[in-house]
Amino acid sequence: MALSGLQIFKLLAKTNCKECGFPTCMAFAMQLAAGKAELDQCPYVSDEAKAALGEASAPPVRKVTVGTGDMAVTVGEETVLYRHEKRFEHLPGLGVLITDEMDEAQAASLLTQLKQTEFNYVGQNLRPRVAAVKSDDPGKLAKLAAMAVEIACAAVVIMSDDAAALKAAAEPIKDNKPLLYAANESNFDAVAAVAKELDVPFAIKADTLDKLAELGQKALDGDFKEVVLDPSSSSLGDVLMNQTLIRRAAIRKTFRALGFPTIGFPCLMTGDKMLEAVYASVFIAKYTGFVILSDLDPARVMPLLYLSQNIYTDPQRPMQMDQGVYPINDPGPDSPILVTTNFSLTYFTVSSEVEASKVPAWLCIMDVEGQSVLTAWAAGKFVADAIAPFLKKSGIEEKAPHRKVVIPGYVAQISGELDEELGEGWEVQVGVREAADIPKFLRQWSAN
């Protein structure tokens, strides 16, 4: 049973040190009870208190990890219903369904594609990581699971209603930590026993939320920590309703029986590939932890990955690049020098236009805490007396001795002051306002 804020407070060190990010221990205890803080934020909590707090310190949606290494997928550990309240913690795991109806070559091709599919967007590498393998034949299921690990090193979801088949497929790859799918009313004890023996997570499925909650409580009573829920949604309306109700029950009511991440199968809901992508986007938007597709067509996978990234990006922390000098198109000592801020979108917009120009250039990225050019200028961070020291310490003088620096057109007003701050030997030029005009500007610069 969840503890109240006062009960939690009594177990804390009561130092009011503020190191947890809250003004008092009481404030921290209240946030912990509400599921909006984590016990690890307190540096002085004792082992005895950790043991006593138990459930109260667990996030409303428990963490589940499937797979190992670079392809591991961690979901759950969520504490809010809306990301602007804090943030969403873990991107959903996107994957592909592989069944025994496919021949070995087709299965191997899909797994190879899974391994090779990757997209870079604003500095992050995004990829599908999950292979869901399905068969009622223990031998075929074990072979598909082994292929998923050997070929793709994937996070594997092993699908069968037969506990013996699940065990036969999972046991050889148990160190890869597969997800067993799924326990239901009739086979719960058998599947749970296999999960406990192999120390791997398992999924629960039911056709109503009431039955799902009953099985979720049964998992809690059995001291299972890593569980995934499938409410068996059969329509888009079911997806919206079930996923929202599960998340609300976990977050708003601290209802532990539904406090687990979920899995969705848009691949089983429709034969229309584009409609499947629409269903998948709704699963992603409505909190689903694992989303399984019928194929890995980049035309659908890429926008779904970008959608995931946009939803799960911390809204309170801008995406940013590391400060430094970035060479583009193999620049030399006579190549132009451009300077801008480290907001990721700014960097990738500018760098892509520089690349498109085919003109070699040095792109100097200045740390302004991830703000755009105008925002950083208005905040006094992208101004002459900050840019000048950055350029002098960046090492760009050795790379491009001509020391002609191009600043964004939107901050043309700082050109004179920056010229003075940089001193003799430097020349400040005002560039274009819009990134789309960069190629033409650079070609003219090179011609001169």
Protein described:
Helices cover 40% and strands 16% of the residues. It is of the alpha/beta class and 448 residues long. The chain has three domains: 5-57, 3-methyladenine DNA Glycosylase II, Chain A, domain 3, CATH 1.10.15.40; 64-312, Dihydropteroate synthase-like (TIM Barrel), CATH 3.20.20.20; 324-447, 3-Layer(aba) Sandwich (Rossmann fold), CATH 3.40.50.11600. The strands form four sheets. Strands 10-9-8-7-6-3-12-11 form an eight-stranded parallel sheet. Helix 10 (273-285) packs parallel to helix 11. The N and C termini lie far apart (74 Å).
Quick recap:
With 448 residues, the protein is of the alpha/beta class. It folds into three domains: 5-57, 3-methyladenine DNA Glycosylase II, Chain A, domain 3 (Orthogonal Bundle), CATH 1.10.15; 64-312, TIM Barrel; 324-447, Rossmann fold.
Which short descriptors sum up this protein?
single chain, 448 residues, alpha/beta, 3-methyladenine DNA Glycosylase II, Chain A, domain 3, TIM Barrel, eight-stranded parallel sheet
CATH first level of the largest domain: Alpha Beta
What fraction of residues sit in β-strands? Answer: 15-25%
CA radius of gyration is 27 Å
Overall spatial form = globular
Biggest sheet layout? 8 strands, parallel
Low-confidence stretches: none
CATH topology of the largest domain: TIM Barrel
Return the structural class: alpha/beta
Instruction: Please count the beta strands (DSSP E, at least 2 residues each).
Output: 17
Q: pLDDT average, as an integer?
A: 92
In the CATH hierarchy, what is the architecture of the largest domain at level 2?
Alpha-Beta Barrel
Physical arrangement of strands within the biggest beta sheet: 10-9-8-7-6-3-12-11
Please give the share of residues in helix. 40-55%
Number of domains: 3
The name of the CATH superfamily of the largest domain reads Dihydropteroate synthase-like
Question: Helix segment count?
Answer: 17
Please report the distance between the alpha carbons of the first and last residues: 74 Å
